[in-house]
Automatic annotation (TrEMBL):
Gene source species: Larinioides sclopetarius
Molecular function in Gene Ontology: metallocarboxypeptidase activity; zinc ion binding
Metal-binding listed as a keyword: yes
SUPFAM superfamilies named in the record: Carboxypeptidase regulatory domain-like, Zn-dependent exopeptidases
Family: Belongs to the peptidase M14 family.
Active site, renumbered: E297
Protein name, entry field: Peptidase M14 domain-containing protein
Keywords noted in UniProt: Carboxypeptidase, Glycoprotein, Hydrolase, Metal-binding, Protease, Signal, Zinc
Signal peptide: 1-25
Cellular component, GO, one term: extracellular space
SMART domains found in the cross-reference section: Zn_pept
Gene Ontology BP annotations: peptide metabolic process; protein processing
Pfam families: CarboxypepD_reg, Peptidase_M14
Length: 493
């Protein structure tokens, strides 16, 4: 019985040694890679696999190190409609680098496995996977191998804790300045609609999910150790956390790292139920990024000796792969008008779950949901809102949504005595959230149109007409309730 696996192993190793050059980056050592070595590995992988990777930097750390991200997917230069974006972020705390090394091994596994392993091939064919090995490269360089606890290198070069540095849903903007690393991630999240995310840490063994913070003024959620602070998507978050913990070699056992601390049931916990914090990244992803992010604590020792890295890779490998596949569960589709034009920034919500997502410029939306029946609510400025029921089974259901213009927001400006010269003017429409409305500036010489807006009014430009528009957007000021519009109408439908 032992003969067959041995033969198999032999064949594989022969095949690999024949195919790969001796210097292949696939032979990533189980050691901690400092920034120059990590950068070299990423560059080498990008060179060896141009058809599967795109290496990019989302900005620089305080000390000027690139915040590298490697996109792994089939045809990385194409963006097929509805192919979802997922991400892994590691080493946000500089002295918690196990995830940093696991990300390099993950890259190697995905690139080597494409075309050989069915699951990996399916994953890369259907998912855009963005991997950031280090969000805090400066902190890593300041920390020391073998330090299991402590804070040396935890923060960035300004000693700021990046996982306390995000705007907070309950507490508002962070008390210290938003750091370059934080800003880069916020911009990244704004520019790319991520659907699923994992954030690797060390110092415990548990999969933790939002919220990390709790409502400040809620009497039943007073700031007390152990109070859970759940999101309306608690069922989804629990499932995501359990997907990781039960595919991990031992996280699901819930064993605690320290004597005296309570065990984690199934190796998962609500963030605030463990302990609450302000300005964390997972809450930010969920509330402002419409991205389901959980925090993966994967080593009791924050910076274990490198000889333990093969064991950590072995313990986490299956969980890391299975978690990525969870983006393919729920409902997604496109929001378009009656002429199949995409509608950008439509809000898509699930009834009973207050946190919605916004459609991309191509009208795409994604929502991870457990099997069940849901009511989708879609709305966009200038369109009638719709509600529709969806039945989610295992896997993804595609539900495209068509929105029709609110006919009442259009009127014939030629009959408006304000506009003696005729022409078209933007119409005024009530919106539910005027304070966040952004009005497009339309520049031109004629006519200048000034009108006071009533509370909760916003300007809607008629569609189907040509304007000379500025690419800039200006904020509508809710305090003055006034918006000056200079625009030039070119006429014609
Ligand atoms: Zn951490």
């Amino acid at each position: 019985m032992a003969f067959k696996p041995l033969l198999h192993l032999l064949l594989v190793s022969v095949a690999v040694s024949l195919v790969l050059p001796a210097t292949s980056a696939l032979n990533i050592e189980f050691v901690y890679h400092h920034f120059p070595q990590m950068t070299a590995i990423l560059r080498q992988l990008a060179n060896e696999y141009p058809e599967l990777t795109k290496l990019y930097s989302i900005g620089k750390s305080v000390q000027g190190r690139d915040l590298w991200v490697m996109l792994v997917t089939s045809n990385p230069n194409e963006e097929p409609l509805l192919k979802p974006n997922v991400k892994y972020v590691a080493n946000m705390h500089g002295n918690e680098p196990v995830g940093r090394e696991l990300m390099l091994h993950l890259l190697s596994l995905l690139l080597d496995g494409y075309g050989k392993d069915n699951y990996i091939t399916w994953l890369l064919d259907n998912t855009r996977i963005h991997i950031m090995p280090s969000m805090n490269p400066d902190g890593f360089e300041a920390s020391a191998e073998g330090e299991c606890s402590g804070v040396q290198g935890r923060g960035n070069a300004n000693s700021a804790d990046l996982n306390r540095n995000f705007p907070d849903f309950f507490a508002g903007p962070p008390k210290v300045a938003v750091q370059p690393e934080t800003r880069a991630v916020m911009d990244w999240i704004r520019q790319t609609q991520f659907v699923l995310s994992g954030n690797f840490h060390g110092g415990a063994l548990v999969a933790s999910y939002p919220f990390d913070n709790i409502p400040a003024n809620s009497p039943k959620n007073f700031r007390k150790f152990g109070s859970p602070s759940t999101t309306p998507d608690d069922d989804v978050f629990r499932h995501l956390a359990e997907t990781y913990s039960f595919n991990h070699k031992n996280m699901y056992l819930g064993q605690t790292c320290r004597d005296g601390s309570p065990p984690f049931l199934n190796g998962t916990t609500n963030g605030a139920a463990w302990y609450s914090l302000i300005g964390g990244m997972q809450d930010y992803n969920y509330v402002w990024g419409s991205c389901m992010e959980i925090t993966l604590e994967i080593s009791c020792c924050k910076y274990p000796r490198s000889f333990q890295l093969p064991q950590f890779w072995n313990d986490n490998q299956k969980a890391i792969l299975q978690y990525l596949g969870e983006v393919h569960q729920g409902v997604w589709g496109r929001v378009t008008d009656q002429n199949n034009n995409p509608i950008h920034n439509a809000t898509i919500k699930v009834k009973g779950r207050e946190f919605g997502s916004r459609s991309t410029y191509r009208g795409e939306y994604w929502r991870i949901l457990r099997p069940g029946t849901y009511t989708l609510q879609a709305e966009a400025r200038g369109y009638d809102s719709v509600e529709l029921n969806v039945q989610v089974a295992k896997g993804v259901i595609v539900q495209n949504i068509t929105l029709y213009p609110q006919s009442s927001t259009y009127y014939e400006p030629r009959s408006d005595p304000t506009f003696q010269k005729g022409g078209l003017v933007p119409s005024i429409s009530p919106v539910s959230n005027a304070a966040s409305y952004t009005g497009a500036t339309v520049k031109g010489v004629w006519p200048t149109y000034t009108r006071s807006l009533k509370p909760k009014e916003a300007v809607i430009f008629p569609r189907g007409y040509l304007y000379q528009t500025s690419p800039q957007f200006i904020d509508y000021s809710p305090t003055s309730n006034r918006l000056l519009l200079n625009y030039n109408y070119f006429g014609g439908k």
